[in-house]
Amino acid sequence: MNTLGFKMSNAKGHAIGMKQLGTMAQAQILLLYIIPKEKYHPQFSIICFSEFGETENLSTRPLSPHLQVYRPQITSVMSILHRITGVIIALGAIAISLWIESVARGGAWYESLSGFLVSVPGKSLLIIWTLCTAYHLCNGIRHLAWDIGYGFEISQVYRTGKLVVLLAVIITAGVWLI
Amino acid sequence: MRLELPLARVKGLGTSGEGSHHWWRQRLSALVLIPLTFWFLFSIVDQLGQGHYMVQEWIADPFTACCLILYSIFMFYHAQLGLQVVIEDYVHNRGIRLTLVLFSRAVLLLFGILAVFSVLRIAL
User: Fold this and answer.
1) Domain that holds residue B77
2) Are residues A104 and B121, on separate chains, in Cβ contact within 8 Å?
3) How many domains does chain B have?
């Protein structure tokens, strides 16, 4: 049993340790070089990973997807951006409700809050919030299209993805420049 | 092959015990938010530099007040559904997960009610 929770054994079914695994892995890599790709078959594998360990070891097994070895792609980056922008918009929603509350309350509280919103840091935050909202809005429409079955071809996914980013920038510019 | 008891199949609630309600509500609230967000984005910018009286006038307008209330309700509802999914995906400890979901729900409910009540206070 290793730290991954696998029971490792050689082709004969004898248990092996980490040291043996290293030697065998080198042999395995050599095999991959020797055998032509089209003739390679899983039965050529000389290391066997079989049977999961006891239940308490299951949680230490590596979880998929392995983000640390995952090359960023437009699809995965846009997916995680949808989440991140969503969380930012939720924080912005709290700020909006505070702003409306300040209008209801009036006085110094309103003055200081609206003073902050027209200052440079306030305006920068507002523009970031607008960009996040525009992105989440456009990408959300893209998600809804997927939900009813449109746009699943990989070329369409890339095209609509780039369109979403472009539209988000155009909407943000439109909101702040018109 | 279905690894499901006939009773579970009839109930249609799946492994999460909630069926597809959460998914379905997230899509419907998203659909409602499309026009509302466009309206909000393009009308809020004009109000930011304005004096207190002008902003009060704007919110007190019946159309604005209705749209703002709808926007607040659906925005906070959608935010709650979304945050719940994010928390459930990344927090693996059951106790912490439930605590965070309930806490985010409470905070968003508080600010949602604050927004709706403030609009009513200004408009009425």
Assistant:
1) 29-123
2) yes
3) 1
Chain B partners of A126 at a C-beta cutoff of 8 Å?
Answer: 48
- Hunting for tokens 């472009």 — which residue is that? A166
Q: Are B68 and B59 in contact (CB under 8 A)?
A: yes
Q: Which CATH number fits domain A69-177: 1.10.540.10, 1.20.1300.10, 1.20.59.10, 3.40.50.1110?
A: 1.20.1300.10
CA dihedral B88, B90, B91, B94 (to 10 degrees): 40
What is the structure's pLDDT at A178? 79
Subunit contact B111:A130, Cβ cutoff 8 A: no
How much is the pTM? 0.75
Q: How far is CA B38 from CA A30, A78, B98, in A?
A: 60, 21, 34
CB–CB contact A140 B108 (8 Å): no
Nearest CA in chain B to A109: B52
Interface touch B86/A176, C-beta < 8 Å: no
- Give A122-171 pLDDT, tens digit per residue: 999 999 999 999 999 999 999 999 999 999 899 999 999 999 999 999 99
The nearest alpha carbon in chain A to B83 belongs to: A87
Residue B7: inside a domain, yes or no?
A: no
User: If you search the block for the tokens 């008891």, which residue do you land on?
Assistant: B5
Q: How far is B11 from chain A (nearest CA, A)?
A: 24
Q: Which residues of A163-174 are buried (b: 16+ CB within 10 A; e: fewer)?
A: ebbebbeebbee
Identify the sign of the CA torsion A135, A136, A138, A139. Answer: positive
CA separation for the pair A17, A86 (Å, rounded): 46
Token pair, residue A77, equals: 């980056």
